[in-house]
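Hi, here's the filled form for the chain we discussed.

Project: internal
Contact: R.S.
Residues: 236
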Amino acid sequence: MFIIRNQIKWALVAVLALFPALASANHAVNAVTTADYQDYTVKSGDTLWDISQRNGITLSSLTEANHIDLNNYIILPGELLRIPAKIEFKVVDNPIAEAQHKVAAQQAADQKAKEAAAAAAAQKAADQAKAAAAAKAQQAQQAAQQKAAAPTTVSYGSSLKTYVLNKMVAATGVSAATWDAIITRESGWQATAQNPGSTAHGLFQSLWINGSNDVDTQIADAIRLFNASGMSPWAL
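And the returned structure, exactly as it came back:
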């Protein structure tokens, strides 16, 4: 019996010795867990939903903090509830919003780059079209200048002499033989004949026509010369 009493005694001593430690540990836990809560005394007419909304928290966080089963609960005026601290999030702390913002910014940058590339391509095409049009116009101008500068040989075949003499006789009344002799002497019937010592040119070696190889132009020039000075330009 003595042995049993001693065992019970020492067991009680051991249990009592644990109380200060447990009390100390419990106090430390309470100090940590209650730091993020505040007390609220239930008033008449309160509901859990109203209390959660007034304090800016979710209904689930309120019930979890107070170990309330939503399927079977009653709150009474004067009852003390623990209200969890409201957690506020900043936009920069929201990884989803930040990622969406980055994606939107990248899409905007890509669209801007695409539009700039399209504008550059359109400008390049416009510049190329403008350069091609300018080159074509220059070629046309050069061709026209070359055509104007190139000698034109008017060939009437065997009828050239007849054509010229008929025109001159009809315009001046001078015989065909006279005009035949003048043209043979002046140019040998070559519409492109050029006097190396003067500007005299063509069938009649006229100084007025400025080097035209057109036979009709040379005939008209000779007629004007005859009307102005008669046959003297040809020393007759």
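Let me know if anything looks off before we file it.
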